[in-house]
């Protein structure tokens, strides 16, 4: 079976690494000729609106999936005429625009932070009255890793934020004082089978994920059940197939949905060593119509992103329980170049190993 | 870092899958253009005595290793002038000929079954007097998976065995009535660091490995210590770098060395899911001069080879704890096409899962 993947970044690379043992073959499509997945599979290069390049890409593929959420919906719909596309394009549509996404969550009775769509400066001022201070002004589309957003702490910040971001559709979001950020990875197969990974606790800095702990410390059954119920509503409504990630703020024991990603997700990388079946393998099992694998965690894991520059591999690998994942990308400030998963038999051991690793990173 | 690998079969494929996350790149060399490793890395095609093809292969490589033990020693020595070669060519030399190999074991005070070199029919008759009945007549070189051997149960079988195999250097080996077959995977790094996986119990049929249990049931510290001591002698004597496998017969609580392989080994495939660090990753860590990873087993594993024909992937994946590994090879009788690793939290659970899987294979 040959799978086409839109996007050839690290997520695609890890999909291929999980898929070869299942006997799958891969072809990637990316705008960059040096995309990391090209090291280990065929890579077609082109723009997402280049129908000729897309047709060449689709030739002989059994199905198409994506690892990049900013694939234009039109591209996915165009390809759907050539091969089955999973997850379904409506999932891209629901996730690509922050206003559409939050409206979608609310339509499923999934709580979200307060938000207000902003097209004009006047919308911004009205929005600030509604959501209060501090607030976050964000582009509705194409934002990632903290790009395309500005904090408005006091009325005086509004002008600067508008200057920075105005002119494109925006959304103003209430600043949430959360206890922590958590995320769930949910998987739905072509037969409708669903499985869920345990919630993980995420730490972001400057809008970029730095660290995940899996399972989330002090995870209660009630919280896990709430997250699974929300994820189930999304999966069913979108007739979803594949892995879906939803990020939540945890506030007074309740979950507020922040955003979702219709793909494998950085906060699920721990599952390669830390779960019985990785998110990458389960995504492939789902889109290929195979039975889903167990999401049970294997003891305790921490995932740390390597951002901007790389440590010496030998230093990382000398830490007990450390597993190194490099993406084959050129170092650049703010760029995700790899990650390390630490595994341990107990929380205490994990803390010790985290401390040892922190000295290196 | 770019690694060259002689041989492009499933072992090479699994080396590459383990090496990409370490940031390594790969180029394989094989006599077959459809070698399985070619699906996911560069593949040079040529004969092992084609020095021009070998020179092209070696260009720009940081080091060279092998996944195929019948690489001619001359090939390895030729390549050594172009890039470092690990494990060292003398390991190929020690392992390629059954008489040299057993003599080498005995020189290190590692017990082996009785054996007798056979060049002529007369040697065979003298040998049978020495080692008794039943005995095994084998080619000294190039044997694998039960090929190139004949059992001599009674004097009457000697003629037939000679007709079948005579004309090439042979060895007559005593038939060992063993309690079981076990093997150890040992790893030595470039710095001299050594680690050892727990002994596994192997079941062969028609000379082909069918199943490994890891760790070996009822494994005592004394038996593990004995195997490690023998492996240590071999590693040190050969100034070995990389993974080495030694197969033993267990007879009355003692180990008799049967053969060794200077490479990653089928009886170590369980380590992908069943150990903290897989044999493939540890081989690469060793040859790259990186710290070796923990060989600690993660609960209980069984590895089953898929030989000759493949089951339906969906049936295999529906068994809890089953991990499928397909090699991308065309089915053919007696050919290793893939393997399944079963993991479980207890021996009892493993037995149940083995039973469920047996119904499918």
UniProtKB/TrEMBL annotation, chains A, B:
The keyword Lyase applies. It catalyses: 5-amino-1-(5-phospho-beta-D-ribosyl)imidazole + hydrogencarbonate + ATP = 5-carboxyamino-1-(5-phospho-D-ribosyl)imidazole + ADP + phosphate + 2 H(+). This is N5-carboxyaminoimidazole ribonucleotide synthase. It is an enzyme of class 6 (ligase). Catalyzes the ATP-dependent conversion of 5-aminoimidazole ribonucleotide (AIR) and HCO(3)- to N5-carboxyaminoimidazole ribonucleotide (N5-CAIR). GO terms for cellular component: cytosol. GO terms for molecular function: 5-(carboxyamino)imidazole ribonucleotide synthase activity; ATP binding; metal ion binding; phosphoribosylaminoimidazole carboxylase activity. Belongs to the PurK/PurT family. Residues 102-288 form the ATP-grasp domain. Gene3D superfamilies: 3.40.50.20, ATP-grasp fold, A domain (3.30.1490.20), ATP-grasp fold, B domain (3.30.470.20). One of its GO terms (biological process) is 'de novo' IMP biosynthetic process. Pathway: Purine metabolism; IMP biosynthesis via de novo pathway; 5-amino-1-(5-phospho-D-ribosyl)imidazole-4-carboxylate from 5-amino-1-(5-phospho-D-ribosyl)imidazole (N5-CAIR route): step 1/2. The lineage of its organism: Bacteria, Thermotogati, Deinococcota, Deinococci, Thermales. Homodimer. Its EC number is 6.3.4.18. Keywords: ATP-binding, Ligase, Lyase, Nucleotide-binding, Purine biosynthesis. ATP binds at residues 98, 138, 143-149, 173-176, 181, 204, 258-259.
């Amino acid at each position: 079976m040959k799978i086409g993947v839109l996007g050839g970044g690290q997520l695609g690379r890890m999909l291929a690494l999980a898929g070869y043992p299942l006997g799958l073959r891969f072809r990637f499509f990316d705008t960059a000729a040096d995309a990391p997945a090209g090291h280990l599979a065929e890579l077609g290069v082109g723009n997402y609106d280049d129908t000729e390049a897309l047709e060449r890409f689709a030739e002989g593929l059994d199905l198409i999936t994506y690892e990049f959420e900013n694939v234009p919906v039109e591209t996915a719909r165009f390809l759907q005429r050539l091969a089955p596309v999973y997850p379904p394009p409506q999932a891209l549509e629901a996730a690509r625009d922050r206003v559409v996404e939050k409206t979608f969550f609310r339509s499923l009775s999934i709580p979200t932070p307060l938000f207000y769509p902003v097209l004009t400066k006047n919308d911004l001022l009205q929005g600030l009255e509604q959501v209060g201070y501090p607030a976050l002004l964000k582009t509705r589309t194409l934002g990632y890793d903290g790009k395309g957003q500005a904090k408005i702490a006091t009325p005086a910040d509004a002008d600067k934020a508008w200057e920075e971001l105005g002119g494109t559709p925006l959304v103003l979001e209430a600043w949430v004082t959360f206890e922590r950020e958590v995320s769930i990875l949910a998987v739905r197969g072509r037969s409708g089978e669903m499985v869920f990974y345990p919630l993980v606790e995420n730490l972001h800095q400057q809008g970029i994920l730095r660290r995940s702990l899996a399972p989330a410390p002090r995870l209660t059954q009630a919280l896990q059940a709430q997250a699974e119920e929300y994820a189930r509503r999304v999966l069913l409504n979108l007739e979803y197939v594949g892995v879906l990630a939803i990020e939540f703020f945890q506030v007074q024991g309740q979950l507020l949905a922040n955003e979702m990603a219709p793909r494998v997700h950085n906060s699920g990388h721990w599952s390669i060593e830390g779960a019985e079946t990785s998110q990458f393998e389960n995504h492939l099992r789902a889109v290929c119509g195979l039975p889903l694998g167990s999401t049970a965690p294997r003891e305790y894991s921490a995932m740390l992103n390597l951002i901007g520059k790389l440590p010496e591999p030998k230093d990382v690998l000398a830490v007990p329980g450390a597993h190194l994942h490099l993406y084959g990308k050129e170092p650049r400030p703010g760029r995700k170049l790899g990650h390390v998963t630490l595994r341990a038999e107990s929380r205490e051991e994990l803390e010790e190993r985290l401390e040892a690793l922190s000295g290196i990173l």
